[in-house]
Amino acid sequence: MLNRRHIRVKAMQSIYAMHQSGHDSLEKQEKFLLSSLENVYELYLVILSSLIELRKKELDFLELSKNKHLATAQDKNPNLKFVDNAVLVLLSEDNKLEQLLEDRKISNWQRNDDTILLLLQDIKQSDIYLNYMNSGKKSFEEDRDFLVELFSEVIAPNDKLYDYLEDYKLTWVDDIPLVNTEIAKQLKQLEEDKFFRISKLYKDTEDKEFAVAIFRKTVLNEATLEKEFIDKTPNWEVERIAELDTIILKMAICEFLKFPSIPVKVTINEYLEIAKEYSTPKSSIFINGILDHLVKEYQNNNKLQKVGRGLL
């Protein structure tokens, strides 16, 4: 689920937090980094479980309506299309997902069902829901396509859900788009009579190793890495460069020199995009100029030791 850019962002934020706190315990900050990455998976499970809880709340509502004193004909014979949605049923009956939620003690919606009730209200007022409930059709494909659209257009961008997630864990703000994209992709790929494939946090062990390595190698070599670019900024004293920019430069240079399997172009593109999103408006231009200058210098001095074709 995690991509390399998100891993780089988390490493950058951990280094920044280390600077701000004034603590120099590498082990402690490394644990903080790995914990922040694990929190992404918790968010994934929390949002996924919201789909299960939405169905439960609607089932409860239908049952209460049917048993109320002055129940109408519609109350007694409600439209069950939403609660019978094949994908929602699949998620609700997924033993592996249930076990994951239990093992990680994820019970957010049982303790905060008001958010789910408000979200359900918004869903039932949407045209997507109304059109689906009145379509008169029944197929797995329709159920899946409905849920994909509902998730993408109503659930994922819902302000009430976003506010709850932000209040519960502030660090999730950066992770919500990544997790929502992953869940939407998984829903689109679902096929009839197939299990829901629950994502893993890391694509492979190399990604987890990269997270620790880029953090450690940058922190342990900060003074040396700074020397690589400080004389390339004659009009700027190091104190005047935005702190995030110096961290981004150090991480990028670290990748140039200490990660032989990562192409130079990939490193530059990744950190420029991170600078655009997290630093000042002019940071990406500033950083690009320095990195471009350094790459040419390293190539002339044979300092770039990259393995594999096309890595320069």
Protein described:
The chain is mainly alpha-helical and 312 residues long. It folds into two domains: 46-189, no CATH class; 221-300, N-utilizing Substance Protein B Homolog, Chain A, CATH 1.10.940.10. It is 70% helix and 0% strand. The two termini are 27 Å apart. The mean pLDDT is 93.
Summarize the structure.
The chain is built from 16 helices and no strands.
Net shape: elongated
Secondary structure category: mainly alpha
Strand content: under 5%
Mean pLDDT over the residues: 93
- Helix count, DSSP H or I runs of 4 or more residues: 16
How much helical structure, as a percent, in the residues?
A: 55-70%
**N/C terminus separation:** 27 Å
For the biggest sheet, the summary is:
none
- The total count of strands amounts to 0
What number of domains?
2
Radius of gyration: 24 Å
Q: What are the low-pLDDT stretches, counting only 5+ consecutive residues below 50? A: none
Order of SSEs, N→C? Answer: HHHHHHHHHHHHHHHH
